[in-house]
TrEMBL record, chain B:
It is a multi-pass membrane protein. Belongs to the binding-protein-dependent transport system permease family. LivHM subfamily. It comes from the Bacteria. This is Branched-chain amino acid ABC transporter. The lineage of its organism: Bacteria, Pseudomonadati, Pseudomonadota, Alphaproteobacteria, Rhodospirillales. The chain crosses the membrane at residues 6-32, 44-61, 67-86, 98-117, 144-161, 190-213, 225-251, 258-279.
Amino acid sequence: MTTLFDQLTARGRVALGLFALALLAVPFFADGYLISVITLVLWFAYVGQAWNVMMGFAGQLSLGHSLYVGLGAYASAALFVHFGVGPWAGVWLGMLAATLAGAIIGTLGFRFAIRGVHFALLTIAFAEFTRIAFDHIGWLGGSGGFFLPVGDAAGANPFDLRGSPALFYYVILALTFGALALCRRLLHSRIGYFWLAIREDQEAAQAVGIDVFRAKLIAVMISAAMTSLGGVFYAFFYNNLFPEQIFSVGRSIELILAPVIGGIGTLFGPIFGAFILTPLAELVTWGVESAGLDMPGIKQIFYGLALVAIVVYRPEGVWPWVARHLRLVHQPGDQPSHRAGDRP
Amino acid sequence: MPLDFYLNVAAGGLLTGLVYGLAALGLSVIFGVVRIVNFAHGELMVIGMYAAVLAAGSLGIDPLLAAPVVAALLFAVGYGLQRGLINRFIDRPDHMQFILLVGVAMVIVNGLLIAFGPDSQSAQVPYAFDAIEIGPLLLDTTKVYAGVGALAVAALLFLFFRLSLTGKAIRACSDNQLGARVVGLNVERLYALTFGLGAATAGIAGCLMTLLVDVRPQLAPEYTLLSFIIVIVGGLGSMGGALLGGVLIGISEAMAGFLILPSMKSMFSYGLLILVLLLRPQGLLGKRP
């Protein structure tokens, strides 16, 4: 569950390689619509991966991750619009703001021993608080929205992140692969093992001398920083920001769908979840529309039913189950080169 | 003169707050006994609101009179939810329960959206523009009815848990699940009963709320969060705390809306929540675990 390549069978490696190749080739054969759908899928995979660091690895449920998306988006957009600073510099301000926010929430929450559901509510409260605050910041457009100048959609200016859908596609693809590699590295680091210990049993982790507070705080900060990067992408991809959309609880819940469906705590779960969920939702919407019905909330109903079905029937997520049945990973009885727990 | 203004605003907030408090009471009862955080609470409340609006619109029934029927309806919904779906999650990790109810909430709120559309609807009552004068106070009749109604239902619920045998059995489950089983209580049935009661309370709060605001599906998540805030501020599992929290939030919202900006009023609720979580996580009237 915890390794990227070690645990994959030969078949799994081939499947992963083919999948990566197919993703790289998408802009060469797909039309604009398909590219934009897969861009969205990858965005959810990326942000889901970021959320997974906090919930899947360290076991801290956040339902306020829209806060970090929003901070990243607004910070980079404000620098770009008001000072002409490009997104690659703005990223740093966005990450700084989000990391700081994560550190504040984490410090308050963990210092005062707020756990489980109460911690999740604390994260919601901070996101909602910020949403209303941003509604009233005129310099950032307030509730009327903040708009970036629309760039030349045909060209490619990677420095200002202005250009064709293909440019955005490759940027988010790189982010997704980068996040996957980073998460794998984190899981096999000292801090990664600390996180798993805390997730399984916090008291036991503390008893063996792990600095629980510090480890959890690092998880929140890394997760927040990664998520804010997704926010920067969001700002430059959509060119418009509304506090009501970007900071909403609904957005936070959308962010957790992919990892929950794919498999909380797994490396491929967020990616797999995003790739099955978004196309299925598009299919449901298409089916309802072609049946001549007008149902504005049908996609959300589908998401809700998917959540319920997953937690009832396959709480560990779809990916572990698929990987087991298609023999993409070694079974506990096989002899993989080495497994996660074997390392010191 | 200005003092009268403030008093009027505060009294209006207090009456609205009692309805908030009643909704939160339902959430608190469910959490206190079943130990499940009902993330679909505001959704149940908004179902109650739509039922009241429908009854008023098509049959001309006053929401206050529709309340018992709506309560019965939501009791059935809650009972069924607990029996059919939630009960198997009693021993699962917190986040699983939470995600389950987030899913249920999404289905309900978007189902309402499809059924009734995104626009506001209201229940017409003949006394919508009347006012009652008490000393220096001039109070909307609707607010007085809603507030008094909420207080009455809360008192009934309190008496039920204090005096009736079923109420005592439910409290026994809440105190010690294993012990309750040992003495032969049917814990599953009592849990379902409690969830049904909590949902019915939310439904009645919804009926009362239609006297005060127009209903639209998007209210549901707002009320869920509001109920959470109130319950945590007041103290999880404390019935008096839920009412007190509701009144506090009601008054602070009304004051903030009056003194600063109406659109910023909920910022104060969230601010209050953060403060209470940090300084007194067990809530104002809650006992330390």
